Amino acid sequence: MREVRERPETKLLLGAAGAFTFVLSAIKLPSVTGSSSHPTGTGLGAVLFRPPVMAFLGTVVLLFQALLLAHGGLTTLGANAFSMAVVGPWAGYAAYRIATRAGAPLLVGVFAAMCLADLATYVTTALQLALAFPDPVSGFLGAATKFLGIFALTQVPLALAEGFLGVLVMRALTQVAAPELQRLGLIKPDVAQEKIDA
Known about the structure:
The chain crosses the membrane at residues 12-33, 53-74, 106-127, 147-173. The chain has nine helices and two strands; from the N terminus they run ααββααααααα. The chain has 198 residues and is an all-alpha fold.
């Protein structure tokens, strides 16, 4: 992977981003609708390493979950990878860039990225299900309304919780991995030096 070749010092952080996504997205939480929800964890990796890297990591995570935990399965791997490893990271990264370019602090950008990556994943999943199972009467639109109500709306509290978790993790990373974050361009050199000297 080019990221590792160009910046070998970020290997541990890259592995941690993959592990974070694996553990977080493996958590199965019951939903009020009788379904279940999962955090995704892809927003943080997208902020750290950009969406293309997170697309690869997210797909690997989903493959391992399908093989080891029977989450999702191999027949739905493509659809799951598209929603969680492609749409989620890109949406999260866009939220991060918009927030930081508007002058928001790094942690606000991370919060926005984590929330939107999670919500975008489940909105995409709802639309995929509506395409696969259109309503007999109202077609795609009726099914989309139903699935968005089941998946997207019930995901809002989980997305907010994931945003707060992302802030906590990023705060910890600024303490233990300041040089790596500085090389990735997420914190300024003077901030990194303060963390090293502390």
